[in-house]
Amino acid sequence: MREVEETKIIYSGKVVKLRIDYLKDGGKKIREVVEHPGAVAVLPILSGDRVLLVRQYRYPIDEWILEVPAGTLKNGESPEKCALRELEEETGYRAGILKKMLTIYPCPGYSTESIHIFVAYQLEKTVQRLEEDEELTVVEMSVDEAIRELLNNDVADSKTLLALLYYKYVYRGLQ
Amino acid sequence: MREVEETKIIYSGKVVKLRIDYLKDGGKKIREVVEHPGAVAVLPILSGDRVLLVRQYRYPIDEWILEVPAGTLKNGESPEKCALRELEEETGYRAGILKKMLTIYPCPGYSTESIHIFVAYQLEKTVQRLEEDEELTVVEMSVDEAIRELLNNDVADSKTLLALLYYKYVYRGLQ
Questions:
Q1: Which residue range forms the structural domain that includes residue B25?
Q2: Under an 8 A CB cutoff, do A104 and B155 touch?
Q3: Are residues A48 and A108 both part of a single domain?
Q4: Residue A16 contacts B, CB cutoff 8 Å
Q5: DSSP count for chain A of H helices, then E strands
Q6: What is the ipTM, given to two decimal places?
């Protein structure tokens, strides 16, 4: 880390925490950093190459977009536990097998966030339990249909397209 | 957009702008939104399937990571103009051909940012011109070497891995 003269917490909210670092180098250099606890995303695989995705309303972009089930790490929670929890809360399915595929930085220029992307198998129906600010519906489609829909949209959710392309073209060949 | 009772700008800086919307629904619901002007990323293709990437120091994560050349849209700038500018500033190469591959939302849960991802051909050497807060070195490698390095790292830059996987497995088949 570059040497920091002073740090100021600008805002500490429910989702976003913003801090400014004043660098120790004689100038007036600052760095603006969104602090994020980290997140998970899960690609849930049903039989026959079909996947469970969610159509979710995202307030910042004011759009319903196609996404893998995902969520933010709670304090002290492991990525695996968070992935199983978010999958069950958002889709109403419990996974028998969960495997890590990869971890990504979505916006390393201004955010500390990393997203752990898992694949889940052996899905068993339980009950969906959405949080107050979640608006989503669960959809089932094939991997190819999901990729096609994301690429046909003007803008695709990054973690979702990456999870699908990685699963289809890299991960399955490794198994 | 959900009905908003009041909007408060918490911070308006060089990179990050944070606003809070107080929703009009009787409760105390708020939405925290990082406003972002949008960004571009460019996968520059040399002859023989070799690509130009940058190893860049990213302050928020305190790491040097492998990335495609990328940057933020300036006021009124088109994505294409921004892509050509950032490519030349960061790598010292001017592109003869620039084509849009796809556009992604990196963090639709809390940020308005979208990233337009381009592929660039017919590269001609000019001069690198880094901004004050940019620390990077240019590297040349094959598409496969780049994918391998990103997957061998603990955490990969999202837009870069997506640009490479999309280029290798989808885009080239479309040409």
A1: 4-35
A2: yes
A3: yes
A4: yes
A5: 4, 11
A6: 0.95
